[in-house]
Structure formats: structure tokens, C-alpha cells
């Protein structure tokens, strides 16, 4: 019975693993569609439309002060009490 429970555990863990990646198939589909479009006229038009994006200046946002450790753990306690 030990081996039975072990195989059940591994089966359930693998199913939960696959459910945490539900869109891998979708990603492959999207990737192949994009690859087809890139070879078509539409893909060329899209490339021209997107090529101006690197001329837009990107200003990175910087976070303010890091919260005090005590404040952070108090917040964490408050939030976990709400669970």
C-alpha cells in the first residue's frame, strides 16, 4: 500500500503542475500565428507601425523608501489575519 499512495501523490502533483501552466498550448498557437503573419504583408505593416517605439523616451520609475521592517511585518500580520 506504500507504493500505491506514493504513485497517487505523484499523479496529483503532476496534474496540479500542468494546471498551473494552462496556456502553453495557447502560447504555441499564438507564436505560430505570429510567425505566419510575419511572413505575410500584414507582418511587414505591423513591423513598420512598431518600429517608431524605440524613439519614445522611457523614464524608469524609482520606488520610494523601503518600508521599515516592523511596519512591513505588521502589514503582513494584518493581511494574513484577513485570510
From TrEMBL:
Residues 1-32, 58-83 are annotated as: Disordered. It comes from the Eukaryota. Residues 1-20 have a biased composition (Low complexity). Residues 73-83 have a biased composition (Basic and acidic residues). This is Uncharacterized protein.
Amino acid at each position: 500500500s506504500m507504493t500505491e499512495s506514493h504513485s497517487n501523490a505523484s499523479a496529483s502533483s503532476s496534474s496540479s503542475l500542468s494546471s498551473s501552466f494552462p496556456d502553453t498550448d495557447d502560447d504555441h498557437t499564438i507564436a505560430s500565428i505570429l510567425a505566419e503573419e510575419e511572413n505575410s504583408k500584414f507582418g511587414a505593416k505591423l513591423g513598420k507601425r512598431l518600429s517608431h517605439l524605440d524613439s519614445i523616451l522611457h523614464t524608469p520609475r524609482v520606488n520610494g523608501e523601503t518600508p521599515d521592517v516592523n511596519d512591513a511585518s505588521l502589514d503582513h500580520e494584518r493581511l494574513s489575519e484577513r485570510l
